[in-house]
Amino acid sequence: MKKGIKKIKFSKGQDSREAVMRKLALNFIERGHVETTIPKARALKSLMDRLSYKSLRHQESDKNVLLKHLGDQQVVSKMFTLIGPAFKETTGGFVTMIKLGVRQGDNAEMARIQWTKPLISEPKPKLAAEKPLKVAKSQSSNITK
């Protein structure tokens, strides 16, 4: 029996809570910020602080923990290559929560989760310069009455 373990619970059950947290964490790592309700933001903040600390040490056991929580090898490698080196000097406080107010539709209190430091994001590939399309002259101007 596990005693003294406090989890932030939602009304849907354990499987649903884990799926929601995984999806929020993947979106957060991909974009660098997420806007959600305050209870979900608090749960995500604690999860991301724990996972970010794991990405600092870069050990095999840490990789297994990240794979367990995130479930994607590419995201785990991004955690080790991008997030780990960015927070090399810090030991905690990787994520911050900013309250945004209430959502207009259902009056739920919203919050924004973001990294405390701006991370150097991967450069987006430049698109090749597109040539302007030639506009064909309309035939109506040539028609005489």
UniProtKB/TrEMBL annotation:
The keyword Ribonucleoprotein applies. Residues 124-133 have a biased composition (Basic and acidic residues). One of its GO terms (molecular function) is structural constituent of ribosome. Residues 124-145 are annotated as: Disordered. InterPro entries: Ribosomal_bL17 (IPR000456), Ribosomal_bL17_sf (IPR036373). Keywords: Ribonucleoprotein, Ribosomal protein. SUPFAM superfamilies: Prokaryotic ribosomal protein L17. One of its GO terms (biological process) is translation. One of its GO terms (cellular component) is cytosolic large ribosomal subunit. Pfam families: Ribosomal_L17 (PF01196). Belongs to the bacterial ribosomal protein bL17 family. PANTHER family: LARGE RIBOSOMAL SUBUNIT PROTEIN BL17M (PTHR14413:SF16), RIBOSOMAL PROTEIN L17 (PTHR14413). This is 50S ribosomal protein L17. It comes from Candidatus Roizmanbacteria bacterium RIFCSPHIGHO2_12_FULL_44_10.
